[in-house]
Amino acid sequence: MYKNGLKRFFDFGVALSGLLFLSPVLLIVMGILIYANKGAGVFFLQARPGKKRKIFKVIKFKTMTDKRDDHGNLLPDVERLTKVGKFVRAVSLDELPQLINILKGDMSLIGPRPLLAKYLPLYTSEQARRHEVRPGITGWAQVNGRNDITWQKKFEMDVWYVDHLSFKLDMQILLMTVKTVLLRRGVAKEGCATTEPFNGEN
């Protein structure tokens, strides 16, 4: 019952309440990012696959500038990530606009993280099962290593979540998320702004 109905009701209620309660924080972060991003904008929208691989636009706070090299190419993420952006990511404030995605029905509060659409052809049939449920702002892999574990381990955890989805597990993940954010665990790989790209092997 929870998986097929109550979870969506729970998500909508939490997302709506969260947006209303956190609106002062959202406005403050927006104001700071307007200055820190040097005209690059405040929001980052990107196509991501959701439940049943349906493509949607994920909404996040933008934490990088649009600095380019002499040839007009964007500089590597590590060079464009601002000090403010690094902090915003470390405490997961960049994820808060995804509450709007939850209201729209694109995402859930808890679930496998929505990854890049270009990864879709690289998944094995087992890894692709992560798309049997709505993607989440946080999930089982995020509270068990986040960006500090291998892609293979992440996908194993995503599929495990799909098979064991329950209200009790979601509440456990929520509590573990608070601890993970406070301790800033697994925010990024060494030398990367977030984590290394998935190539179908790692």
Detailed description of the structure:
- The structure is a single chain.
- By secondary structure, the chain is mainly alpha-helical.
- 42% of the residues lie in helices and 10% in strands.
- It has 6 helices and 4 strands; from the N terminus they run αββαααββαα.
- It has helices at 2-36, 77-80, 83-90, 98-104, 151-164, 167-183; strands at residues 43-49, 55-61, 108-110, 136-138.
- A two-stranded antiparallel sheet has the order 1-2. It has a two-stranded parallel sheet with strand order 3-4.
- Strand 1 (43-49) and strand 2 form a beta hairpin.
- Helix 1 packs antiparallel against helix 3 (83-90) and helix 1 packs antiparallel against helix 4 (98-104).
- It is globular.
- The chain starts with a helix and ends in a 19-residue tail after the last helix.
Task: Summarize, please.
With about 200 residues, the protein is mainly α.
Properties at a glance:
single chain; 202 residues; mainly alpha; two-stranded antiparallel sheet; globular
Low-confidence stretches: none
Average pLDDT, rounded to a whole number, is 89
Spatially, the strands of the biggest sheet line up as 1-2
Largest sheet: 2 strands, antiparallel
Distance between the first and last residues' Cα: 36 Å
